[in-house]
């Protein structure tokens, strides 16, 4: 049976168009349901974002303040001598003197230091010269203003040296090198003498107040050695050098052995050493007050 169709009148067309337009208008003006759920979350979301950003900025600023207060390796720490901080230069330097092994297992040094600091001093007299040159003039006179800036206005007066006629100070680096040289000599008593003869620290007083007894000199020598060991230990731990040191396999040895000749980030030693020498007896030396 065929479906029957009839022609719409103009009134029917208008009614249909009105209904369609009304439905479209209602859909346009009706708020979407998802907006009712999201609108209340917007303020909380913004607050959360602001809180996270504030926390991030607070941590970043705190770290920046701490870094600024303590200083940096490349620019100088707050504990570094203020007048010499401008001399700091940083570069990568490969260490030398590390041992290696040939195919027969014999140890040798492929990259010795350009200057000799180890070996038999009886055979190589330049060893003592090089060590002495490292630390010669390590205690220099500094100005009153430098002393106050270094130790504080209330404390610096106690460091006046009557014999030198001023405030005496030196870089701890050179003090530590002196200690290392002292221990080096102690390893060769046949050449350098006993601990008492090597050490030149003040010997402890005996019951009679004398410092000339052999036992007191020996005790003073050992105390000086102990001080040097403690100084070097703390100096190394304080530096916190995190340079990774690998181990390398040597067939002649049959196992791995540490390879210490690797690049390190260092301050330029020569610049600081030249400054010390100049402040000791050069044009930059501070005149004593006698």
From TrEMBL:
Coiled coil: none annotated. Residues 1-22 are annotated as: Disordered. One of its GO terms (cellular component) is membrane. It is found in: Membrane. The keyword Glycoprotein applies. The chain crosses the membrane at residues 36-61. It comes from the Eukaryota. One of its GO terms (biological process) is mycotoxin biosynthetic process. It is a single-pass membrane protein. The keyword Membrane applies. Pathway: Mycotoxin biosynthesis. Pfam families: UstYa. Keywords: Glycoprotein, Membrane, Transmembrane, Transmembrane helix, Virulence. Belongs to the ustYa family. This is Uncharacterized protein.
